[in-house]
Specification:
This protein has one domain. Helices cover 36% and strands 14% of the residues. Strands 1-2 form a two-stranded antiparallel sheet. Strand 1 and strand 2 form a beta hairpin. The chain is rod-shaped. The N and C termini lie far apart (48 Å). The model has no long low-confidence stretch (mean pLDDT 88).
Length: 74
Amino acid sequence: MGPVARPQPSESVRAKKTTKRTPDGLPVHSFQTLLAALATQARVTYRLGTAEATFTKLLTPTPLQQKAYDLLGL
């Protein structure tokens, strides 16, 4: 056995591993799955009939997307 003891996970880490949820109830993600979830956010451009006028709508973000945007200050 080496001179350095293995680190013990904190209570919050153990809770996340057990429940697969963050403290605010969102699912735990890896970086890749978080990027995949963020990639589903969309901007849709609408055109009514043959009119030249268009309007754009951002789809409502999921709770996970909103939390990520909040943490990033977006």
